[in-house]
Specification:
The chain is an alpha/beta fold and 218 residues long. It has one domain (2-214): Ribonuclease Z/Hydroxyacylglutathione hydrolase-like (Metallo-beta-lactamase, Chain A, 4-Layer Sandwich), CATH 3.60.15. The protein contains seven helices and 14 strands. It has helices spanning 37-46, 61-64, 67-74, 85-97, 170-183, 200-206, 208-214; strands spanning 2-9, 14-21, 26-30, 50-55, 77-81, 111-113, 118-121, 124-130, 139-143, 148-152, 155-156, 159-160, 189-192, 198-199. The strands form three sheets. The protein has a six-stranded mixed beta sheet, covered by helices on one side. Strands 7-8-9-10-13-14 form a six-stranded mixed beta sheet. Strands 11-12 form a two-stranded antiparallel ribbon. It is globular and about 50 Å long. The N and C termini lie far apart (39 Å). The chain binds zinc ion (2 copies). Residues 12, 14, 60, 62-63, 153, 193-194 line the site of one zinc ion.
Length: 218
């Protein structure tokens, strides 16, 4: 069984998530947005948690500025989709503009994801799904045992990710959104990169972008 912890970090209110197996206490950190996450992780480690991996849903600065410090703290590997390595490099400049500390700028992924990987967290499967559009290497993380999706900046409650940043593609985002809302059941919970959580069913009923995608209007 999994538990999910959510921390809202940084100037863009990014959702960082810690997911852990309650029996083995193995944990994954998703989108460690800033170093503000470090004391929180230290506390969790003191209570027995073992961080076994760091995953970024994509390479934008507001999702990865805590990676370097966290990797040093816990000594585990950082995973990013291979198509977002360039985005990660460019993020340094944006971070400066956004007033985010850029001490992460020598961070390189230890594991390059392609999509389709199945990781293990205790007794749970963690599926990596390539959902390009917001960036070329955006991923969505699905945990079937808990029916939860971590959608990064692809799908938000009542909104979707912007595609006007370098590497963004509206057509790819539409395809990714269509895949998500048709593949997953209505009760699957959506944990986005910003803002409150939702469900696939709520988004199908209330997200104007998703409704248009499903009607073939894009
Ligand atoms: Zn982003
Ligand atoms: Zn973001």
């Amino acid at each position: 069984m999994l538990r999910i912890l959510n921390y809202v970090l940084g100037p863009l209110n990014t959702n960082a998530y810690v997911i852990y197996d309650v029996s083995t206490l193995e944990a994954l950190v998703i989108d460690p947005a800033t170093d503000e996450i470090l004391p929180k992780i230290s506390d969790l480690i003191s209570s027995g948690l073992k961080v076994v991996g760091i995953i970024a849903t994509h390479g934008h600065a507001d999702h990865v500025c805590g990676v370097k410090g966290l990797r040093e703290l816990v000594g585990c590997r950082f995973m990013l989709h291979e198509l977002d390595v360039e985005v990660l490099k460019e993020s340094v400049e944006w971070a400066l503009e956004w007033g985010i500390d850029v001490s992460f700028n020598d961070v390189r992924p230890d594991i390059l994801l392609k999509g389709g990987e199945v990781l293990r967290l205790g007794s749970d499967e963690v599926q990596i799904i390539h959902t390009p559009g917001h960036t070329p290497g955006s991923i969505t993380i699905y945990i079937p045992s808990s029916k939860v999706l971590f959608t990064g900046d692809t799908l938000f409650k009542e909104s979707v990710g912007r595609t006007d940043l370098p590497g963004g593609s509206w057509d790819k985002l539409v395809n990714s959104l269509r895949m998500l809302v048709t593949r997953f059941e209505r009760d699957v919970v959506v944990y986005p990169g910003h803002g409150p959580s939702s469900t696939i069913g709520y988004e199908v009923d209330n997200n104007l972008y998703v409704k248009r995608v499903l009607r073939g209007r894009y």
